[in-house]
Design a protein that fits this description.
Blueprint lengths: L5 H10 L6 E2 L5 E2 L2 H16 L4 H9 L5 H23 L1
Antiparallel strand pairs: 1-2
Helix pairs in contact: 2-3
Length: 90
Amino acid sequence: MLGVSQSLLRFWETEFDCIKPHKNKKGNRSYTEQDIEVLRNIYYYTKECGFTLDGAKEQLKKKNTVNEKTQAIDTLLNIRKFLVELKDEL
């Protein structure tokens, strides 16, 4: 979903206490919607805005979520995909 490695996700789990995926007996992780939203926010702050991990932690504490931005981006990507498919059909 985010295009990051599994090791980076595990690292973020150790750094951010708010990420608590459920693990089965094999150790496979299942992320909740809330976990995914936190991971998206961490990705946004660290990769797109250039914050350090401490800066990302501060932003998460301030509740400056990018939920609306990520939803808008997802919507725009879906619209773009639809328009490209429509163009190809014409």
